[in-house]
Specification:
The complex is a heterodimer of chains A (487) and B (348).
Chain A: E1 3-12, E2 15-25, E3 30-34, H1 41-48, E4 56-61, E5 64-66, H2 71-76, E6 79-82, H3 94-99, H4 110-124, H5 139-152, E7 157-161, H6 169-184, E8 188-193, H7 196-202, E9 205-210, E10 213-218, H8 224-232, E11 251-259, E12 264-272, E13 277-281, H9 288-296, E14 303-308, E15 311-312, H10 318-323, E16 326-329, H11 333-337, H12 344-351, H13 361-374, H14 390-399, E17 407-411, H15 419-434, E18 438-442, H16 446-452, E19 455-460, E20 463-464, E21 468-469, H17 475-482
Parallel strand pairs in A: 3-8, 3-9, 6-7, 7-8, 13-18, 13-19, 16-17, 17-18
Antiparallel strand pairs in A: 1-2, 1-4, 4-5, 9-10, 11-12, 11-14, 14-15, 19-20, 19-21
Chain B: H1 6-33, H2 38-50, H3 53-78, H4 86-104, H5 111-140, H6 144-164, H7 197-216, H8 218-228, H9 230-235, H10 240-267, H11 278-288, H12 293-309, H13 313-317, H14 323-347
Helix pairs in contact in B: 1-14, 2-12, 3-7, 3-10, 3-11, 3-12, 4-5, 4-6, 4-10, 5-6, 5-10, 7-8, 7-12, 8-10, 11-12, 11-14, 12-14
Classes of the chains: A alpha/beta (487), B mainly alpha (348).
C-alpha cells in the first residue's frame, strides 16, 4: 500500500516536533527513517499509526485521503505499528494475545486462530508455540509474535520503531529476511532506527530527520559520512574549556559490570576528578541510564567496585550514596523528581535537613523566596510543581539539590527547555563544578555534550567506548560511534 | 487548596451541594420503593438522633470510635495506602483488650490500672494486625487491600472462635458474646448516659493530633510525599517503606483504641461484630472529606447521628435500620461522582 504524508505539522507546546513533513512510501519498499532522539521521527510514526493526531496535514493511503483518530482506526486501514517495547500481555498465552484486539464476538474461536497463526508462521519460518506464555519468549520472539499479530489483523503497512534493540544477531537476520519477504509481497515497511548499519543494510531509501524537519532522502549506495552529516548538522565551534585537576574525593569505577533484562555493560573503568564533566552520548536505551543509576546507587552492579574519595560504596544502599554526596536528578521530572500536588515550599522543606519535629513555615517561606529568586523560577512559593513549565520544573529540581554535592548525576538536564534556559542551567552547573562538584550527564544533543563535557563516553547497545577527550572529538566521529561504527 | 481560585472554590461548593441533593433524592427513591413515606422517615431519623439528651449523648458514643478510625485512616490515605484492614484492626484491638481484662480481672490491681492496661493492650492489638498488613506489603509484595481483606476475615473468625470456644460464657456460648465484665471495669460514664467523657476525649485528641501531624510536621509532609509520589520521595532520600510502616502502625494504634473503647465503654464484653462497621464507615468519611482532617470531625459526627437516628426505624416504621447506610453510601458516591464531573467540566 502506498502511503503519502503531506504537509504534516505537529506542535508540542513551543516545540515544533514535525515541521511540514512530506514523505511518500511506495508499496513494496522498505523505507528507512533515520534521526537522533527528538528529531521528530517517532512523532510522525505516532501520527501515522493514530496514537496522536497532526495539527495539520493530510495522510493518503493508495491515493485516498484518510482520517486516523486512533490505533484501532489505523489497523482497520491496514497500518500496524511495532513498538520498541513489545505491547503484549506477558502473563497470557500467545493465542490469547492474538485474540485481544480482534473483533471476534463474545466467544472467540481459538482453534481457527491457532490454524491461521500456524499458517502465517510457516510462511515466514517462525516457530512460536501458540500455547506458550508470552513471558517465556525472548524479546526477538515477542517481536515476531507482534509482527504476526499485526499481519493477522490485516496490516499492509508495517511500522517498526527501533526493532533491532535487544534482539540477537540471528533474530535480526530473520527479521530482515521477513521484512524483505513482506516488501516483496507488496507491503510497505517503514523502518525507524538510529543504527546506521541496519538502515544502510536493509532500506531501499532513507529519510533523514533533524529537529522536526525532514532534511533529505538518500538512495543507495549510501555514504555513511553523508548520513551522519545530515543527522547531526554541521560541526559547531566549541568554547574554550577550563581544566580541573585531580583531587582527593574523586569517583572511581573499577571493572564494573551492569546487567539488566535487556543489556549487559561489561567492565567499565573510570576515574572522575573534581569539577570534571563527563557526557554520556548514545541513542536512548543504549545503557547510559543504567550507567547513571549505577553511579547513583540505584542499580547494583553485578561485578566491580565503586568508590568515592576512598570510601567504598559497592553494594551499599541508595541512602549511603546520598550521604556520600552523590545526587541524582532523573529525566522524568514529574514522575521521579518532583511530587505533583505539593507546592514549591513543600518541596524545599522536603529537600532540607529536618530541623526539629515541627516545620517552621516562616523560615521555609523565606528560603523558598530566596531559591525562587536565585534560580529564576517562574512561580510562587505556593505554586504546585505540576503548574510550572518544564524549564521551571528543572530549575526547581536543581534548586532542591543539597550543598555540597560531590558528584551530580543528571539525566537529560536540558531536555525540552528553550536555549536560554539551557544556557542558564549550564551556567549554574558550571558554578558547582568550580566548587569541586563532578558531573556526569546524559543528553541526546551532541552539541550539548561536546560543548559542556571534558570527556565523553559513547554507549552503543551496552558497549561503552573508552573516554574520549571532548576537545579533540568531532561531531562526525561522535555520530559514527553513536551509530555503532567503530566499536 | 491554597492555589484554588475563588471562582472554582464556589463552583466546588455548588457541586457538593448538588451531590447532597442527589444523594437525598436517591435515598428517597429507595424509601418509596420499599413503601415508606420519606418525610416520615426523615423526621424519624431526626428525632431519633436529636430527640432527647440521651440520644444526643448516644451520637457522641458512636462518634468516638468513628473519629478514631477516621483519624487513623487519614494517615494511611495520606501515605497512599488503602487500609481496608482497619475493620480487623479494630477487632483485634477489642480482642486484646478483652484478653487483658480477663487476665487481670482476678488480680487485685486497682480497676483504673486494669482499664488503662486494657487500652494499651487494645492499641497493641490494632498495631499488631496493621503491622501484619504492612509486612505483607513491604516484604511479601501483597497489596494492602488484599492483605487487609484477608486479615479482616481472620479477625472475625478469631472473634467467633473465642466467643464460642475458650472465652465462652459459663454453660453455653452464644452470639451475645462473652461474659460481661463487672461494673468496676466499665469505663466511667456520665450519670444517666452511656457516654464516657474519657473515650470521647481520646477520639477528639486523636483527630487533633492527626490534624497537627499532617499540617505542620516533617513527618506529615514526608508522608504526603510518599503517598503522592513514592518514587520521587525515595529519590529525595525519604525512607519510604519506613514511613509506610509508620502510617500503618499509627492507624492500627487508633483502630485498636477504637476497639478498646467498644469493649470498655460500650459493650463491656467481646461480641461477634465488635467493630460495628466503624472502620468502613471511617473510610467513607475520609473519602467524603477528601482526606482533609479539618472536616473529618463534623462529617463523622453527622454520620454518627445518621446511625443513631435510624436505630428506631425498625420499631416505628418497620424499616431496616440499614437505611442510614444507604444515605451514607450514596452521599459518598455522589460526592465523588460530582467531583469527577466538575474536573471533567473544568479541565478544558
Amino acid at each position: 500500500m502506498k502511503v503519502e504524508l503531506i504537509h504534516i505539522h505537529k506542535h508540542f507546546g513551543a516545540v515544533h516536533a514535525n515541521n511540514d513533513i512530506n514523505l511518500t512510501v511506495e508499496s513494496g519498499k522498505i523505507q528507512g527513517i533515520l534521526g537522533e532522539n527528538g528529531a521528530g521521527k517517532s512523532t510522525l510514526m505516532k501520527i501515522l499509526s493514530g496514537y496522536i493526531q497532526a495539527d495539520s496535514g493530510e495522510i493518503r493511503l493508495d491515493g485516498t485521503p484518510v482520517k486516523i483518530n486512533s490505533p484501532s482506526d489505523a489497523i482497520r486501514l491496514g497500518i500496524g505499528m511495532l513498538h520498541q517495547d513489545p505491547l503484549d500481555f506477558p502473563p497470557m498465552r500467545v493465542v490469547d494475545n492474538l485474540l485481544i484486539g480482534h473483533d471476534g464476538g463474545l466467544f472467540p474461536n481459538r482453534g481457527e486462530v491457532v490454524r491461521a497463526f500456524s499458517e502465517l508462521q510457516s510462511r515466514f519460518g517462525f516457530n512460536i508455540d501458540p500455547y506458550a506464555y508470552v513471558d517465556t519468549l525472548t524479546v526477538g520472539e515477542r517481536q515476531q509474535l507482534e509482527i504476526l499479530r499485526l499481519l493477522w489483523l490485516g496490516a499492509r503497512v508495517l511500522i517498526l520503531d527501533e526493532p533491532t534493540t535487544g534482539i540477537s544477531a540471528s533474530q535480526k537476520e530473520k527479521l530482515f529476511e521477513t521484512l524483505r519477504k513482506l516488501a516483496a509481497q507488496g507491503m510497505s515497511v517503514i523502518f525507524v532506527s538510529h543504527k546506521l548499519e541496519d538502515v544502510e543494510f536493509l532500506c531501499d531509501r532513507i529519510a533523514v530527520f533533524r529537529k522536526g524537519e525532514l532534511v533529505g532522502q538518500v538512495d543507495p549506495p549510501y555514504v555513511t559520512d553523508e548520513l551522519v552529516q545530515m543527522m547531526f548538522g554541521r560541526a559547531i565551534s566549541l568554547e574554550e574549556k577550563q581544566r580541573y585537576e585531580t583531587c582527593d574525593v574523586s569517583f572511581h569505577l573499577d571493572h564494573v559490570t551492569i546487567e539488566d533484562y535487556r543489556l549487559q555493560i561489561r567492565d567499565i573503568n573510570l576515574t572522575i576528578s573534581c569539577g570534571e564533566v563527563i557526557g554520556l552520548a548514545g541513542m536512548e536505551g543504549s545503557g547510559q541510564v543504567q550507567f547513571l543509576r549505577t553511579c547513583a546507587g540505584l542499580i547494583r552492579p553485578v561485578a566491580g567496585e565503586i568508590n568515592l574519595g576512598g570510601r567504598r560504596l559497592t553494594g551499599k544502599p541508595y541512602r549511603a550514596f546520598l550521604e556520600a554526596g552523590i545526587a541524582y536528578v532523573p529525566a522524568s521530572r514529574l514522575e521521579e523528581g518532583l511530587i505533583p500536588g505539593l507546592s514549591l515550599t513543600e518541596h524545599f522543606i522536603l529537600a532540607e535537613e529536618q530541623n526539629g519535629f515541627f516545620i517552621n513555615f516562616d523560615k521555609a517561606l523565606a528560603t523558598t523566596r530566596q531559591r525562587i529568586e536565585d534560580f529564576n523560577i517562574k512561580g510562587t512559593p505556593v505554586s504546585t510543581v505540576e503548574s510550572l513549565s518544564g524549564g521551571n520544573q528543572q530549575r526547581a529540581l536543581l534548586a532542591m539539590l543539597r550543598q555540597p554535592v560531590n558528584l551530580l548525576l543528571l539525566e537529560h538536564p536540558t531536555r525540552g527547555l528553550d536555549i536560554e534556559s539551557a544556557i542558564w542551567i549550564w551556567g549554574k552547573l558550571k558554578e558547582r563544578c568550580k566548587q569541586g562538584t563532578s558531573i556526569i550527564f546524559t543528553s541526546a544533543d551532541l552539541e550539548e555534550i561536546l560543548q559542556y563535557s571534558d570527556r565523553i563516553l559513547v554507549f552503543y547497545g551496552g558497549k561503552v567506548s573508552p573516554p574520549l577527550d571532548a576537545e579533540s572529538t568531532t561531531v562526525e566521529q561522535l555520530g559514527q560511534l553513536i551509530g555503532g561504527k567503530g566499536f | 487548596m491554597t492555589t484554588m481560585k475563588t471562582s472554582s472554590r464556589w463552583s466546588g461548593i455548588g457541586f457538593q451541594a448538588l451531590a447532597v441533593l442527589l444523594a437525598l433524592a436517591f435515598t428517597t427513591i429507595v424509601m418509596l420503593i420499599s413503601g415508606a413515606d420519606p418525610l416520615q422517615v426523615y423526621q424519624n431519623i431526626l428525632t431519633g438522633a436529636v430527640g432527647s439528651p440521651v440520644k444526643i449523648a448516644d451520637i457522641l458514643v458512636a462518634w468516638t470510635p468513628l473519629l478514631l478510625a477516621t483519624a487513623g485512616l487519614l494517615l494511611t490515605f495520606t501515605a497512599g495506602l488503602w487500609n481496608i484492614g482497619i475493620e480487623g484492626q479494630i477487632t483485634l484491638g477489642a480482642i486484646f483488650t478483652t484478653w487483658a481484662l480477663r487476665v487481670l480481672q482476678p488480680t487485685d490491681l486497682p480497676p483504673a490500672l486494669i482499664i488503662t492496661i486494657g487500652f494499651i493492650a487494645g492499641a497493641l492489638g490494632g498495631m499488631f494486625w496493621a503491622g501484619l498488613v504492612a509486612l505483607l506489603k513491604i516484604f511479601g509484595n501483597v497489596n494492602e487491600i488484599f492483605g487487609g481483606l484477608g486479615l479482616n476475615f481472620v479477625a472475625t473468625a478469631l472473634t467467633i472462635w473465642l466467643i464460642f470456644g475458650p472465652w465462652k460464657r459459663p454453660g453455653v456460648g452464644s452470639m451475645s458474646g462473652t461474659e460481661p465484665f463487672p461494673l468496676e471495669l466499665w469505663l466511667p460514664t456520665l450519670q444517666g448516659f452511656r457516654l464516657s467523657p474519657l473515650s470521647l476525649a481520646m477520639g477528639i485528641i486523636a483527630i487533633v493530633i492527626v490534624y497537627i501531624l499532617l499540617r505542620g510536621t516533617y513527618f506529615g509532609l514526608r508522608l504526603k510525599a510518599v503517598g503522592r509520589n513514592g518514587r520521587a520521595a525515595f529519590l529525595m532520600g525519604i525512607p519510604t517503606t519506613r514511613y509506610m510502616l509508620m502510617a500503618f502502625l499509627l492507624c492500627g494504634l487508633m483502630a485498636g483504641l477504637a476497639g478498646a473503647t467498644q469493649v470498655l465503654a460500650v459493650y463491656h464484653r467481646l461480641i461477634p461484630s465488635i467493630s460495628s462497621g466503624y472502620g468502613f464507615l471511617g473510610m467513607m468519611v475520609a473519602m467524603l472529606v477528601n482526606y482533609q482532617a479539618l472536616w473529618a470531625a463534623p462529617v463523622a459526627l453527622f454520620f454518627a447521628a445518621l446511625n443513631i437516628g435510624s436505630i428506631q426505624l425498625p420499631i416505628v416504621l418497620k424499616l431496616d435500620s440499614s437505611l442510614s447506610g444507604v444515605l451514607q453510601g450514596s452521599l459518598v458516591l455522589f460526592v465523588l461522582l460530582m467531583d469527577g464531573v466538575r474536573r471533567r467540566l473544568t479541565r478544558s
